[in-house]
Amino acid sequence: MKISHLTLATLFAFGTVFNVRAQTAIKQLTVTIDGSKTAQTVHNIGASGCWFSEGIGKYWPSAKREKIAELLFSKQTDAQGNPKGIGLSAWRFNIGGGTAEQGDSSGIVDFRRRAESFLAPDGTYDWNKQAGYQWFVRKAKSYGVENLIAFSNTPPVQFTKNGRGFKTEKDYISNLKEDKYDAYTKFLTEVIKHFDKEGLHFSYISPVNEPQWDWSNPPGKASQEGSPWTNAEIHRVIKSLSSELEKNNLSTKILTTEAAMLTYLYSGKTASTKQIQQLYADTSKINISRLKFVPPVVAGHSYFTDKGDSTIINVRKNVADTAKKYGLEYWQSEYSMLDDGFREGEKGRRSAIDCALFLAKMIHHDLTVGNASAWHLWNSYEPGGAEFDTRYYLIALNPNKEYTDGEFTVTKNLWAMGNYSLFVRPEMKRIAVERNDGLDFYKQAQDVMVSAYTNGKGKLVVVAINYTRDNTALKLNLSNLKKGSTYRTYVTSAAAEDNLKASPVQKAGGPVNLKPRSVTTIVFN
């Protein structure tokens, strides 16, 4: 439906200045949000500091790294109400495997992707290792990040079959020596116990990462630490780790399976696929769901399942349906635009806002179709530019050759993700949204996408992605909710000033203007 001769009151509610005498056609969308129709609880939204945290946290000048930490973790606003950061509620900390100590002989090409280990070959621990990673995890804690998550890409190199942090044989089985399973899980437990004593509690420990990849490379050509694992090997390491955590009276839970693609969670024919059925079915001999420290959570990565709207939606429907069948929550625990899905058929470079909108679209579908209870971006920062093809990161780095200093630029990805991470706080519930235009999920993916969340105490958060090139008037019908009388919007668009830009406080009731190609969060209080 089209409207014209807009009233001044409506224009004020839009928060946009128009000539009231002009004939202005604006697309309209009405959504109904019924507080009694809740879906999953969202526990956290976060990111990883893998690889590049070490150099920044250890060497970069204080003012620069402090600013990066503020951008990632702060929940504060400036005098105009504009956020200073995106308030991540989870931070992923990499427990290194010792390839940094091996230097060039590690076989990993880029020195920045080698990681130190707290455990020396002689069995002693050096808690001064990974100083840069530690700086960031301590900053996360100081900013009040609610969930610290530790993960490991490889067992310590002294425990691996080839003495390296990656595989040299393409056999799709673990690089961990047969007699070192307990040694590996004792190491992980010691790390958790140490940081617990320092007041840095890891809510979760993830001992296995992307087990479906072979992680094999000739020495000197590897890109990072990594190891494959079969489902039977995962069962073995999880069982050992659960026992170690119990022995040490720790409360950290085990996060698994960190599937390399979401499809591996419910389909496939290899020894590391169909992970939900293999690891959580009551009839399975390698069931891990009965282990004390394993919560009813299955984690998967959204890489390579983003090429086309049908794929995005159908894969996540399958994840949601399979997880529900086995009584599990689904966590999306790693994503960046590794594949070319973000190009959406377009040739040439994609602008910063195009990438940001695609990132928001992926978060939206994981939450609304996949029913994800957590959502994590892979890398917070990487070397690159901030204007085009910002597919891998929130903050673009321009480091010096030694990686001891550098410059950084904030991308639109940071603020687009912030539309979710800053406002959808831990333990808020998603509310089902009904719309009056009858568009199905597939058509919504190229139109306006809307999701809503509540804390049950009078706070309502609505996130709207306007994927179109038209202004849209969004009308909200609210029911069975403690209705706030006022709201504020936070807008991220291509405009230089629209980085979660806050509107003045407005009275509830009128429609909200969604700028073309933008993400808008509406917060009712």
UniProtKB/TrEMBL annotation:
Presence of keyword Amino-acid biosynthesis: no
Signal peptide positions on this chain: 1-22
Ranges for domain Endo-beta-1,6-galactanase-like: 30-383
Lineage top rank: taxon: Bacteria
Pfam families listed in its UniProt record: Glyco_hydr_30_2
Keyword entries, A-Z: Signal
Protein name per Swiss-Prot or TrEMBL: Beta-glycosidase
UniProt lineage: Bacteria, Pseudomonadati, Bacteroidota, Sphingobacteriia, Sphingobacteriales
